[in-house]
Amino acid sequence: MHRGLLNRGCLVCENTVARLMNSEGIVSSTTKNFRVNATNSNHSLPIADNIPDRNITTDGPGYKLFFDLTYISTAEGFL
User: Fold this and answer.
1) If you count Cβ atoms within 10 Å of the first and of the last residue's Cβ in the chain, which end, N or C, has fewer?
2) Which residues, in sequence order, are CB contacts of 6 under 8 Å at separation 6+?
3) What is the pTM of this model?
4) Is residue 5 within 8 Å of 17, Cβ to Cβ?
């Protein structure tokens, strides 16, 4: 909020903005930083095949491309 006011040319003290926001019940919305959780390998569930380890023949360089979809962000959290 303070930075937005400064960008619009309003010279106000950050503490004044905080006090006025507090008196009006306005709170800032913050997002949590993404944190990778370690995989729990202590389970009896089946383990997926190691597909990149297969010998796949190609016509030239740059044709063997792989990516990791381990973390997919959804509204309910990460899959």
Assistant:
1) C
2) 12
3) 0.37
4) yes
